[in-house]
Fold Ribosomal silencing factor RsfS.
Amino acid sequence: MIDTYVRKQLETIAAAAEERRAEDIIVLDLTDVSSTLEFFVICTATAGLQLNAVVQNIREKAREVGLPAPSVEGPSERWLLMSFGSIVVHVMTREARDYYDLEGLWIDARTLDFAS
């Protein structure tokens, strides 16, 4: 079972991505399949400008729920990674998402539902 505080953080991140029109947002619970990773939020942005807008909105909304400033890997026109410690966010273009197939790599992870 996920801690209420962590659930709120995950919901906030997913909602922030959706606010900037990110698509195919999924949250993976990796706690049963990895000894070092806990949660992934993966979403798709259509282009570099939208990708940056999604990342910026997630950063702002995450701060509001008490998450520390993330470390951001990039910049890239195809994929930006934000690490909040136990929560790692992947904002990817469709091409990058199809190519790297993180969902396939972590096929045994549980998908959490944060449908709006």
Q: What stands out?
A: The longest helix spans residues 48-64.
